Amino acid sequence: MSAPQTHNAFHHVIASLIPPGSRVLDLGCGDGALLALLRDTRQCTGYGIELDDAKVEACVARGVNVIQRNLEEGLSIFDDNSFDVVLQLDTLQHLRNTEDMLRETARIGRTGLVSFPNFAHWPHRFSVLRGRMPVSRSLPYQWYDTPNIRVATFADFEILTGKNGLRILESFGWHEGHEVRLWPNLMASTAVFKFERA
């Protein structure tokens, strides 16, 4: 499956986890494709937050509401329970204030959906065993030029949510266009969690 088809399939899986008519905030929304899908197929409303100029322009071209903002500045512009769902798809690994952002997600949203590259995926483990940092579709950069500030695994995120008073509602893996429910920490290149305040 090609990369755009894989990305599109992932968006459809994420959309299926969001109740129709939800008010959604997408942190690091990219070109707004997911928000447009949610608007068009699930009657969702809301906003994206994006820093990159070209991606903000792409959101505007799609008719997606977007706020240009650096996520490192936090989410204090939003009141408690402003959204039904807050998305953080492939953003946590780029942030310095990961734990704060997770708490803020729980503060402003009733539920959160997070995805990130799973560092415990078996090819990554094998690469580290050989003495090399992994390079893969989910971690496509060399160690010296990666935008990722940190790496994490399923187990790491489970500990982080528990430490911050959050309850995991659902978790699964994603790999090459398919959901991974059996041994996702080993078999999935991407981790996906849906959570709420405990």
The mean pLDDT is 92
Could you name the ranges where pLDDT drops below 50 across 5 or more consecutive residues? none
Shape by Cα distribution: globular
* Rg (C-alpha, Å): 16 Å
Please write the CATH class name: Alpha Beta
Can you tell me the CATH topology? Rossmann fold
Number of domains: 1
The CATH superfamily label reads Vaccinia Virus protein VP39
Structural class: alpha/beta
**Spatial order of the strands in the main sheet?**
3-2-1-4-5-8-6-7
CATH architecture: 3-Layer(aba) Sandwich
Specify the helix fraction band: 25-40%
Strand-residue fraction?
Answer: 25-35%
Number of helices: 7
For the largest beta-sheet, the strand count, sense and barrel status come to: 8 strands, mixed
**Total number of beta strands:** 8
Task: Give the ordered list of helices and strands.
Answer: HEHEHEEHEHHEEHE
Please give the alpha-carbon distance between the first and last residues. 38 Å
